[in-house]
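Recall that a protein's primary structure is simply its ordered list of amino acids. Everything else, from secondary elements to tertiary packing, is in principle encoded there. The following example makes that idea concrete.
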Amino acid sequence: MFEKLTKAETNARNTHRRAADTAYNDAAEVLAVLNGTPALLALEGEITALRSAVESGDAVETAAKLDALADQVREIEGAGDVRKGLNNARRVLEKTPDDRAKALADFDSAVAELAAQKTWRQAADSSVKPQLQAYVDGILPTLGARSLSQLSEDQALYIASCNAVHRDLSLNF
């Protein structure tokens, strides 16, 4: 009977931990994507200006520019599809510089993805982000505590006092 109770307690604790981690981490990831919106919008002009170079510019130079832009996009959360299109266009220019149509199609898919992301990110920035930020800030000290690199003094003292209680371990042997 003790074994069943101990196992049930462990399972309940693990279920709670997973649920708490998911509640915080998922919201924090979405917030990180929304926080990357200004950086992505700042690159929009550079990306769209590169279209003529992909069409008819020097393939080696254009591939280098695409690589540099893809590196900048890599730093932005949730912009992986934009980066993928830029990288695909770069690869085409490096391997088959004469296949401008394929490179242009890949580049245009990156621009289309950028436009789609711009639309939903700007809409979410004004409507969802404030509430999501309040939610993340509200659950960080409790449900998000396991994601913190360091606990606050109040949290550490509370945990120390909870764990300072004697437990009878005789049934574990």
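Residues 2-172 form one domain. The helical segments are 2-35, 37-49, 51-56, 59-74, 80-95, 100-127, 129-139, 153-162.
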